Amino acid sequence: MENNYPDIADNIKRVREIIAEAAIRSGREPGDIKLVAASKTKPAGFIRDSIRAGVDAVGENRVQEMIGKHTQGAYEGAPLHFIGHLQSNKVSKIVGFCDLIESVSSKSLVEAIGKRAHSMGIVQNVLIEVNIGREPQKSGVLPEQTEEILALASQTEGIKVLGLMAIPPFFEENKQNCYYFDTMFQLFVDMSVKKYDNVSVRMLSMGMSDSYVDAIRAGSNMVRIGSAIFGSRI
Length: 234
Known about the structure:
CATH topology: TIM Barrel
Radius of gyration: 17 Å
CATH architecture: Alpha-Beta Barrel
CATH superfamily: Alanine racemase
Strand content: 15-25%
Number of domains: 1
Helix content: 25-40%
Distance between the termini: 17 Å
């Protein structure tokens, strides 16, 4: 039975309007910002509704959940991103399965993804996850390690880096959030001018339902929106 949530299209329209305003205020076109529907715990029917309503991609956090929903045709019509913490033992399950792996957080993952993709005769697109807030409970390379991991990726067959991803600390005070978004954007700018094979730093994925306006104003061009599209987790 199809799961329908009649507010999804309206929610996406509202999010698009907010994105457009934030983009214009930052001197960019609304179409420059990619909207990823973060669909953790959401049923396949909800995801199909979001794709029909025009999201640019769908992002999943859990490998097994993603595979299960894929068998239900949840992602037909939109690129699929993996946005959750990736364990090395799950690399073989998602390389070639996802259009973009956003959460590559270590040198060992770069090497494992490259090795798997090369053995399959494909190139896997990825983002490098940066722990911009230096939070010990979060994954991601430290800011000062970013250039080193890009250099490694440039020498690794089977992998192409398209940009950076971050989940900055969240604060109730807007000023503190903006500090981390601005810091991450500056790192993105610094890395975008580096010349490496297999590396084209043009995507900056940061900003979620509670922070995407500030993220866009700081320079993000990809936001991962869950509750503002689907409502609270079920």
